[in-house]
């Protein structure tokens, strides 16, 4: 009969006290309690409020992690975009170097010390191909995309990014472009073109696009597609359709945060993706759309947006944290 090591590939660690930095699924034997213990998720997690943005905005962009993110661009009105950038340190926001252009409906990828923003809407005319690189202090214009995009989605890092969905000069877009650190290459189209969708992803070979408007008349969708570096595959739909929401995480562990839907009661919805299906978890404290987020499924960050038509832009920031426990087997 196979023992634990034969099945799992490692022995059960024997300790006198529970490890402080255990990971989910880790198993150990506690000699003080004489029991087998393991790290487990004890709840669906919860949202808590944090420091407000200095400048309220909608349809901006964000990248980073829960304790270190950059929020950039966005609109202060439906006809006025901004170039303002703010950096989050885990508790408060501080203004840093402005982008070279003011734009909204913009996307980006990276960290607070090495980031990339691409596309967006240059008021009052149309989308842009322009791309800017962030070095932690200032923005530098770099290689343009092949086709102008706005209301689009983005994922990855400063040297490995993906731009997809949104709107281009032809209307709703299913086109995808991959960034290798120096240039953009058109790759496989999505199965369903859409605009104002949400996204997750860690590189130009790992991405997820979900919800959005796939008709072009303000409708909402539940559709979800996964990118493996060469092609998009339709996967499980979200439980509730929406657009203008935010996303974070990877193609196998993602989170959908907020959304616009015909029912205002759905604007605070949060869903988790496990690689095959979506599960509703605890709602936001403040429902919103035209919002943006960053982080991971277990440690997400959300800021900006609107609570409803004609309502002032939000400065409110929320953090999502999964709750873990040590259980006895």
Write a structural description.
This protein is mainly beta and 329 residues long. The protein folds into two domains: 4-41, no CATH class; 46-322, 6 Propeller (Neuraminidase). 2% of the residues lie in helices and 41% in strands. The protein contains one helix and 34 strands. The strands form ten sheets. It has a four-stranded mixed β-sheet, with no helix packed on it. The chain has a four-stranded antiparallel β-sheet with strand order 4-33-32-31, with no helix packed on it. A four-stranded antiparallel β-sheet has the order 5-6-9-10, with no helix packed on it. The two termini are 21 Å apart. The mean pLDDT is 92.
Helix/strand-derived category reads mainly beta
Helical fraction equals under 10%
Any idea what the CATH superfamily of the largest domain is called? Kelch-type beta propeller
- Assess the beta-strand content as a share of residues: 35-45%
C-alpha end-to-end distance: 21 Å
Strand order of the largest sheet: 1-2-3-34
CATH topology of the largest domain: Neuraminidase
Write down the Rg.
Answer: 20 Å
The main pleated sheet reads as: 4 strands, mixed
Tally of helical runs: 1
CATH architecture descriptor text of the largest domain: 6 Propeller
Average pLDDT number: 92
Number of strands: 34
- The CATH class of the largest domain, by name, is Mainly Beta
Uncertain spans: none
């Amino acid at each position: 009969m196979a023992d634990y090591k034969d099945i799992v590939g490692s022995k059960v660690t024997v300790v006198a006290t529970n490890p402080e930095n255990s990971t989910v699924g880790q198993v150990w034997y506690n000699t003080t309690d004489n029991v087998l213990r393991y790290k487990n998720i004890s709840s669906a997690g919860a949202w808590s409020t944090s420091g407000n943005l200095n400048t309220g905005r909608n349809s901006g962009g964000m990248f980073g992690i829960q304790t270190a993110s950059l929020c950039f661009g966005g609109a202060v009105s439906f006809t006025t975009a901004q170039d303002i950038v703010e950096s989050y340190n885990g508790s408060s926001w501080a203004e840093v170097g402005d982008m070279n252009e003011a734009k909204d409906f913009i996307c980006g990828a990276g960290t607070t010390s090495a980031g990339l923003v691409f596309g967006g809407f240059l008021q009052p005319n149309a989308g842009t191909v322009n791309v800017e690189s962030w070095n932690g202090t200032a923005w530098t214009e770099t290689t343009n995309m092949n086709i102008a995009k706005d209301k689009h989605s983005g994922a990855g890092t400063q040297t490995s990014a993906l731009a997809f969905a949104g709107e281009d000069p032809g209307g709703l877009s299913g086109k995808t472009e991959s960034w290798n650190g120096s240039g953009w290459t058109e790759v496989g189209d999505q199965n369903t073109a859409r605009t104002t969708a949400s996204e997750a992803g860690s590189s130009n070979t790992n991405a997820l696009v979900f919800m959005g408007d796939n008709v072009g008349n303000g409708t909402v969708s539940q559709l979800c597609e996964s990118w493996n570096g060469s092609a998009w595959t339709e996967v499980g739909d979200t439980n509730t359709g929406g657009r203008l929401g935010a996303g974070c995480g990877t193609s196998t562990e993602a989170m959908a945060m907020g959304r616009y839907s015909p029912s205002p009661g759905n604007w605070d919805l949060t869903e988790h993706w496990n690689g095959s299906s979506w599960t509703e978890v605890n709602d936001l404290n403040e429902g919103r759309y035209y919002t943006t987020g960053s982080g991971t499924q277990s440690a997400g960050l959300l800021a900006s947006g609107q609570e409803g038509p004609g309502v002032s832009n939000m400065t409110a920031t929320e953090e999502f944290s999964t709750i873990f426990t040590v259980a006895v087997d």
